[in-house]
Amino acid sequence: MSSGRFIAIQISSLSMSKKQSERDLYKETLRELQIELVKLQKHIIKNNEKILIIFEGRDAGGKDGTIKRISQYLSPRETRIVALGKPSDRDLSCWYFQRYTPHLPAADELVLFNRSWYNRAGVEYVMGFCSKEQYHEFLETVPNYEQMLVRSGIKLLKYYLDISRDEQKKRLKERELNPLKQWKISPIDNAAQKHWEEYSLARNTMFARTHHMSAPWVVVRADDKQKARINVIKDILFRLHYKDKDEALVLPDADIVFAYAESYLKNGMIAP
Hints:
The protein is of the alpha/beta class. The protein is 48% helix and 12% strand.
């Protein structure tokens, strides 16, 4: 065997070993955090709390995978995942928030919204599924709606999973090629890259108009799926109170997950 080939094999072996080590660390950390989530749920049930967590973001941003890891070992009786489909004619005739209100958490419940009323600030507006008047009405009224929820006793967390244009392109292509992900493909996917700039502008407007003290936006840099999942869970656990919290474990990476600020649109922390 030539020395060049031997060195190449060694480098490949080291690379594989590093990847395996990273996967093992991810799995170990995820398991520890899922144990913390079970502790959190016990606290929620014992104290009759109501928790609502909203996940928004680009198409292929990683919402499904993140929600799956959060809910994986939680009680299905007290944990609900809400992912509403296309609105019916009746839905379209109702007060906009009426469609979402029945799915809000009752006592003891943790509810995870895989997309939410913020559809109106993103895909509905960009794709022309709502009028400009409806769009501006939404931006005007949603802070008041959320403040009412918080005053009623609901603890509301809002996460936006942010990815780069290249990463989205890569993930959408993977969906086409992976037979196990065919169900994720939709006509909206095809427009995601074409309307990238419009979605960016809509996102920035949404942040500016709907980031408020009662329900601030938390941005997640999600190009690395595993780091995003880990740090979202850490941030949830960090923000919510429960008994016997492992404070060191749940401290999130501030370069991965952070409260929205306008300056992050300019310094590259949020994808352009």
